[in-house]
Amino acid sequence: LGRTPNLEISANEARKLPETVGRRKQGPDALGALERVEKLGEEDLMLSRRINGESHPGTLSLMHSLACMHRALGKLQSAEKLAEESFVLHKKFIGEHHPDTLSSMQFLAWTYQALGKFESAEKLGEEALVLYKKFIGEDHPDTLSSMHNLAWTYQELGKWESAKNMREELTMVRKTVIGEHHPDTLSSMHSLAWTYQAIGKLEAAEKLGEEVVVLRRKVIGEHPDTLTSMHFLAWTYQALGKLEKAEKLEEEVVVLQKKIVGEYHPDTLTSMHNLASIYQALRKSERAEDLGEEVVMLQKKIIGEHHPNTLRSMHNLAITYHTLGKLTNAEKLGDEVVILRKKVIGEHHPDTLSSMHNLACTYQALERLESAKKLGEELVVLRKQVNGEHHPNTLSSMHNLSCIHRALGQLESAENLGEEVVML
């Protein structure tokens, strides 16, 4: 979906943040204000260490606050180092069951996640959740925030069943404790719908996604979170083959995103990309072409031609050109995508192999059979390495290569490949 996960800061942790952090989105000098507060925090911590000692509650509080400040400024390594020290000292001097220790523990897990250290985040997050449930209760807001963050960690680790179970529990508890109209409940419902989609439970994703869109429209109106849920629901409709519903909803999303977050916002570009793919699936190729060209132009300008999202849009636009019979355009763009994807994500990545497959088909349609053969042979070798020789994509590439050999009059090679496909 191209969306960044919304991690939650616990209530206890939020109380420790300097007041300026809560206002960081206000005014053009917000970053400068944060940096000034950070400098003051460093001076206060150094002074408190010297006068009160590292075991003093005031020192521990300042240490945690400064770690939060580093995190807010994107200084993740500094945040990690200070958060680890803070957690160790909290455990040593006030005990592992104290709410402030749990807050430090949860913040450190959150920082590990931001750094991509998901195994460390999982281990610490699970430990924190057990302690939260035991000492402050299963229904406490900090416990629920800990569950939310741990579910994201499971997702990043590909542990979708664990993520699903955690989100189902979290959604149920939040509906009971704070009600289904609360923004945090809606966030949990949205994440759960996303999880259902990821594990192939499309009908469940659709049902819950529709509920979230209705509630978010009612509670927060034309808010970016509402648009995210609408975009997700359109994506789910598309996965279910309900293309007209997907088209109608995604068109509405694009209009609203241009109005609310601007046409250059990454979320707007993602929705435009998806809408172009829906047009393509509906065989509205001219619309797909017009929108696809606009998206590629904007993405190259804003996020650069090497960004995976840009390459994905270029890949789809090349398909649209091929569908429209604009084979020269398809070839030119397809060549560019293959070169860039090999460079950016490597020749073994499934997306690279998909682009190579499409380009070979374009060469074949242009009757550039030697080029098609050369690329097709490279593709078969790579797909056998990546997917194995029995994978449907490998067999499809072998079949296409057999057809190319036949078109070149290389009948023995074509027959051998065809027999290999049948045997596999």
TrEMBL record:
InterPro entries given for it?
NLR-like, TPR-like_helical_dom_sf, TPR_rpt
Q: Which regions span the lipid bilayer?
A: none
Q: Which residues form the signal peptide?
A: none
Q: A single Pfam family, by name? A: TPR_10
Q: Organism's domain of life?
A: Eukaryota
Name listed for the protein in its UniProt record: TPR-like protein
Origin species: Rhodocollybia butyracea
